[in-house]
Amino acid sequence: MLYSIENKNIYHSKLDINIAKKASNIILDHQNKFNQNTWNCQVRTSKAIYDNILNLKELHELKINTISHIENYMHLNNNFIDGYIHESWINIYEKNFYQEFHTHENFVNKYYSGVIYLTNDNSEIEFDVSFRKTIKPEFSDILIFPDNYPHRVSPNLNENLRISLAFNYLLCNKTNDSLNLK
Q: Which residues pair with 151 in a beta bridge?
């Protein structure tokens, strides 16, 4: 499904449930390795340990499943771009942890950004400061959106951990939209 707000599309779909369960268990087994971040919010993250956690052998199935959704996002937008998952990280939200409005923009690179939800009872994610679109994600949901789209995570109001995996897909080369077979 695509939500369109101010000419920006948000892709919302489901990962393979078994792959998501396996990834969730792997991350829960290693959650104590993830520390407070240096961002202006409360969240524990893998960012200081791994530049691209999806490159870990144990998460390979999750990476392949994620790439299939990125391909689908490009298909639905009729905008095919060569690229790869450049960086990915785990975010763990304990009770009252949140994330402020931010983007994934970069001065050098252009990305499609995304979030995968690996727990139940997730906090809402809110897009766009002015036009506010709120999504209440469920376990195994994946959201993909342009890197310059402001978003934030509401505080986790319960005792259960909220675990997500964020990623940036580096856009390299635009490909032809169709074949010219004349």
A: 102, 127
